[in-house]
Design brief:
globular; Enolase-like, domain 1; binds magnesium ion; 2 domains; alpha/beta; about 325 residues; binds ligand 164; OSB_synthase_MenC1; 3-stranded antiparallel beta sheet; TIM Barrel
């Protein structure tokens, strides 16, 4: 692959600000920078608080998408979960309605400022609405080991498939996993931040700290890098989004479509949480599945959702710095 120069990257860059229907990670508008190369569009959208070093992997992923394209898929559609942010129990039903029919739901828990009772109420409401669905929770490392074990005990009656990053440190994740097994709690432990934000994304597998991995294309440096990490880890993988536009979601779908095994629904239906996109044919779920297909990007939508001038400048300067350091 010909690597694009910084000038080539800047020449094709567009910045959009997509409104969220439901606040997620305290984000009300998701800003993303899109790049267009010979293979199509790529998305560069590290969260604003990430430094340039962490953003580098996101740029490698965008360049892979736009200048190289994706590996050959082994499936033509990908099962996806609905994602429920840390809303009040009464807010669960309208959120779920956005996703249409689904057989798996991921529920955010351990949000700062909320209590375990709030989490239990939210999970109970999802279980009430979808008695047969596979439910997962994601704590984003918000608990300590004791809190995580109390929470998993309290949530056990609602039948969880797995708990994603209940605690932050790999050593704590391992401790929670061992204690969950000792107590015979029927819940698996998944690692997200321990993979995507780690110096060594394989440590969690080496130390038996998780039963499965949640993998995101951009923070892992692209579809091929993510495939490689999953293969080396030797653990089942769930692909999830970074709250992307259809362009970023298509990279996640490409990863999910290329994984040799895909035993769980993926967290790639997040466009349902948004109120705008750059594609006239957004990658939205249909009865719990996303099709593996190219996504067209329209000039009209790029213009409609164009970010304000100061934010565009901020993103272009970030792109220039991160590209220079690659
Ligand atoms: O996995 C899903 O169902 C949706 C994606 C999702 O939860 C996330 C997207 C972006 C940032 C993260 O805080 C969050 C996650 O932790 O997995
Ligand atoms: Mg997560």
């Amino acid at each position: 692959m010909e690597h694009p120069t910084t000038e080539e990257l800047l020449a094709s860059a567009r910045v959009v600000s997509l409104p969220m229907r439901v606040r997620f990670r305290s984000v009300t508008h998701r800003e993303v920078l899109l790049l267009c190369g010979p293979a199509g569009w790529g998305e560069f959208a590290p969260f604003p608080e990430y430094d340039d070093a962490e953003a580098a992997a996101w740029l490698r992923a965008a360049v892979e998408a736009a200048w190289e394209g994706f590996p050959t898929p082994v499936r033509s559609r990908v099962p996806v979960n609905a994602t429920v942010p840390a809303v009040a129990a009464a807010g669960v039903e309208p959120v779920l309605a956005r996703f249409g029919a689904v057989t798996a739901v991921k529920i955010k828990v351990a949000e700062r400022g909320q209590s375990l009772d709030d989490d239990v109420a939210r999970v109970a409401e999802v279980r009430r609405l979808l008695p047969a669905a596979n439910l997962r929770i994601d704590a984003n490392g918000g608990w300590n080991v004791t809190e995580a074990l109390s929470a998993l005990e309290a949530l056990a009656p609602y039948r969880l498939e797995y708990a994603e990053q209940p605690v932050m440190a790999v050593s704590d994740l391992r401790a929670v996993r061992l204690e969950v097994q000792r107590r015979g709690l029927p819940v698996l432990i998944a690692a997200d931040e321990s993979v995507r934000k780690a110096e060594d994304p394989l440590r969690v597998a080496r130390e038996d700290a998780a039963d499965l991995l949640v993998v995101k294309v951009a923070p892992l440096g692209g579809v091929r890098c993510a495939l490689d990490i999953v293969a080396q880890a030797g653990l089942p993988a769930v692909v999830s989004s970074a709250l992307d536009s259809s362009v970023g979601i298509s990279a996640g779908v490409a990863l999910a479509a290329a994984l040799p095994d895909l035993p769980y629904a993926c967290g790639l239906a997040t466009l349902s949480l948004m109120d705008g996109d750059v594609s006239p044919a957004p990658l939205l779920p249909d009865a719990g599945w996303l099709a593996v297909r190219p996504v067209p990007v329209s000039e009209e939508l790029l213009e409609r959702f164009a970010a304000p001038a100061d934010r565009t400048r901020w993103w272009l300067e970030r792109l220039e710095r991160v590209a220079a350091a690659l």
